Amino acid sequence: LWCCVFCVSVLASFRGMGQHGLPLEIGDTVQILEKCEGESPDRDGIFPSSYVHLKNAHIKNKGQFETVVPTEDSVITEMTATLRDWGAMWKQLYVKNEGDLFHRLWHVMNEVLDLRRQVLVGHLTQDRMRDVKQHITARLDWGNEQLGLDLVPRKDFSMVDPDEISVTELYKLMEHRHRKKEMPVQPNTHHLFVQVKSLVSSNVGEELEVFFSIYDGRESRPLSERFFVRLNKQGVPKVSEKPERQCTLFVDLGSSDLRKDVYIVVHIIRIGRMGAGEKKNVCNVQYRRPFGCAVISVADLLTADSRDDHLLKVYTCNAENEWFQIHDNIIRKVSSRYNLLGSSAGLAVSLQLLHGDMELIRREYMTLFTRDISISKKLGFSDVIMPGEMRNDLYITLEKGEFEKGGKSVARNVEVTVYVLDVDGHVIKGSVWAGSGEPGTDPFHSFVLYHNNSPRWAEQIKLPLPVDMFRGSHVRFEFRHCSTKEKGEKKLFGFSFIPLMQEDGRTLPDGTHELIVHKCEENASLHDCSRYLKLPFLKASLLANSQTAKSTKESFWITSFLCSTKLTQNGDMLDLLKWRVHPERAGDSLSKLKEIDGSEIVKFLQDTLDTLFGILDENSQRYGLKVFDCLVHIINLLQDSKFQHFKPVMDTYIESHFAGALSYRDLIKVLKWYIDRIVDAEHQQHIQEVLKASEYIFKYIIQSRRLFALATGGQNEEEFRCCVRELFMSLRFFLSQESKGTSPIAQTQAVFLKSFPTVYSELLKIFTVREVASFVRDTLGSLAVGMQADCPLEAIKLQCIAKTVESQLYTNPESRSILLPVVLHHLQTHLQEQRDLVMCARVLTSILSLLNKDDMDQSASEEVSVIVRSLLTVLLRTILEVTNRPQPAGTSMRLQFQDVTGEFVACLLAMLRQMTDKHYQQLLEAFPTKDDLKDFLLQIFTVFRILIRPEMFPKDWTVMRLVTNNVIITTVLYLSDALRKNFLSDNFDYKVWDSYFYLSVIFINQPCLQLETFAPSKRKKVLEKYGDMRVMMGCEIFSMWQNLGKGKCLSRINRQDTRNISMSKHFWPRAAIIMNWSEGRACKKKKIIPSAVCLNV
């Protein structure tokens, strides 16, 4: 019970030396009973109000063991108590000369104090408060682990009260925290932070452009776009006052990208004269010229936990025509094709791998994003595509060219100039990006290779154009010869172009394109785009014998790659979306949908679904089956891990945009048509795909029916219900077919059972809870019985039951009363046969977690009775068998073994804690003979002895041990009556009494109950919540011993154990029992009853 009171926190120590004074220490919590103004009251317990701070508080467990708890954030309460405990232990570390831990704990304590101040001030945002609390709990857990303190069960960063949650939930929390401590979760997404510092020991004397990219050495292709930094003539970043321009974050690297053959590749371009050694007065025009390259493996960064500085060696090409593959030559160590720039020269950078999704990175590294750091994206989408992700980037790589000499005696110095022009022929400003980190330009100039008519650039650019600007826009590539003479002219000699979107609406397809080089020597000729846009632009489009093909020998190659969430390059997708233009082709478009890439479908998910249901509404007789198959394909596409985050998009579509009020009839009709043909079908694969999509098929059916009912006022309701009942009849017939575990029908049954629980919540939107529960009960009950124990379908069936008891349907008491018998029947069968124990533990945990002793009404009490009657005995036997098995050798198998043992123990404790006097009475009266009762008592006493073994739970699980002991002593008190009533006098049974007293003595001697060995704060908490359980058990032993009478004796307690117990100042307030262990053992062998009893009262 809770009641509202006030308490105070002591701010300064008060000795309380005066009359009636109450001594106070800093940090004490004191309950206020009365506040007096003026004269002091004539009673004990007074202190000055200025020494304390007033707080609201609650009294918990009002009565003898009541506790005053301040109504503040539980995290603050825990911090205060923990720091107080650490303080005393921290001083002992100094005394014991454990200097390393002493200093580390000191830093952590100061850190926790600082975080506590932040929480108390209350100025943090919600997200920041969550991060701070997470940080606090991580620090508290670290300190507790280092000091050998107990593991604290938490939920949402707050400590949980074991009395307010079920034992099964408590075990889950403890086990989760224990596993998290032992096996931290490895993130699947990674990001690379890069900061450019300088080019060291370089005497170039020219400005430099540095380009970083992630490169796959195995497939010889870039994985990311480029990051671009400008360096001045001194080799330091040109914009030093803007540090964000020197840094980038390469985002969305998958775990598969962190391998030895994935590299960070750096290309350095100098801006200056054609030749590095030329005199300044030869030519004033500056060119972009190749300079150097550096490479480092991403795998070299995996072991670093913080940002590391690296000096990357820079290499130059021996031959300029090899520049396009210099990085490959360095990776493959073809040293004959490159040279080291200088032994002391290098590019100084800082590199760090960050792990986790972007939301986590933004929270943990807030300073990076407050400075507006540039983001370098992956080429293509990440391993997981998120809905709402907006991206429209076209990447073009200038690959190579083939040019004629043009009447010159030597080869040309070719520079490519890139423009992007809109539908009106105007240059789109800032549309060409050489890389992230620097704004876009117009135009873009390629680097120049000296005297080379077959230049190979392999230079990547990005065109981040808005979607509406693609139609009608084109890219123009102008080719100029760069003279090295004094004037430094750049003379135009040709151009190529390529439209960004085709006439049918498709964007430029990915891949390599060979463009025609049209001759042009006047810049003015390019001012009017309409003059050349009608010309052919692709070599592949020319006929071999055409005049243009004969006159055009020069070519220019580019590679394009589109990464867009709005544009498509797929003609089949466009044909489907525009089916009304050619309705006679709708069937062909539907048939081709399965061949379209999944990323294209999710881009236009809503439009595609609208198209499917539009075709269904207009011609369901002709296209109903094809539309249904396409819908199944899309639904199953979203099961893929890459697209699974689009499920909410489909959910939103169903709830807010779906308008097919008549679609439910066709969907039910086709679904039933498929199910009715399962038994006779030769191939089951497509039918299995249909059943795998059951969840969303039912979502569409139910939403369609709701729309129809809303529009018509509920017409045809009985017809709809009849159709659903017939559908479930077909399902039950198909499930009732007997088949071997590996047969196609059995595999189809397994597919359905896996997806069946997902339809419950949809059925509840129209049908009552009892109707849906009846559907589920009859469907699960229709499966063929008498299957072999090793049949895979039996395990799938149990998994289906597990999902059923975890569903929304099962949480309703009405449905539980219908479903519980069939669930318990299957669970009991599996436990009796010792099959699928992991899944059995999961099912039983879910069942018991819904029971709450504080809310025990008639129906809940009946549930407990049914569960106890069905499972208690078999659960005890299961625990005995599991704990007696040898532990598996493998680590993963051993962990699974420990998990299932712990879960069954938690289930037993939860079941016993829910039982009342009535349940114990029913349990004990249900045994037909005393032998059955005896077997039960021996079994449960043996299990209890197992539960209090030190190895039952990890060493720091004190909370779980105390809950276990509390349940044991409560149960023993109930079972004591059965012993007295059934096994005394003429019915005396030595074995039962021996087991009882043996358990009692072991219980008393447990290390976790020796309160005098605990720290004062821990001892106080245990006494307030549970009292001294040794005293309770000792009193019960005394009472039971008295019942035995003078003629009966059991000797079970070792003399040394007895001496230790009786010497404890906290134990035996009423009695001390001393029994002779050795004499009892000897008497047992001689089959006589010893009479040596010493009883001190």
Describe how the helices and strands are arranged.
Layout: E1 2-10, E2 29-31, E3 52-60, E4 67-70, H1 74-95, H2 99-121, H3 126-146, E5 154-155, E6 158-159, H4 167-182, E7 189-200, E8 207-216, E9 221-222, E10 227-231, E11 247-254, E12 262-272, E13 287-297, E14 308-312, E15 315-317, H5 326-331, E16 338-340, E17 346-355, H6 358-364, H7 366-370, E18 374-376, E19 392-402, E20 414-421, E21 444-445, E22 456-463, E23 474-482, E24 490-499, E25 511-516, E26 518-519, H8 547-551, E27 555-564, H9 571-577, H10 586-592, H11 598-603, H12 605-618, H13 620-637, H14 647-657, H15 663-676, H16 685-692, H17 694-712, H18 717-735, H19 744-755, H20 760-763, H21 769-781, H22 792-805, H23 813-832, H24 837-849, H25 858-884, H26 891-914, H27 917-925, H28 930-947, H29 958-982, H30 990-1004, H31 1016-1026, H32 1029-1044, H33 1055-1063, E28 1072-1074, H34 1077-1086, E29 1094-1096
Parallel strand pairs: 11-18
Antiparallel strand pairs: 1-2, 1-3, 3-4, 5-6, 7-11, 7-17, 8-9, 8-10, 8-12, 12-13, 14-17, 15-16, 19-22, 19-27, 20-21, 20-23, 23-24, 24-26, 25-27, 28-29
Could you explain the architecture of this structure?
- The protein has 1097 residues and is of the alpha+beta class.
- It is built from 34 helices and 29 strands.
- The two termini are 37 Å apart.
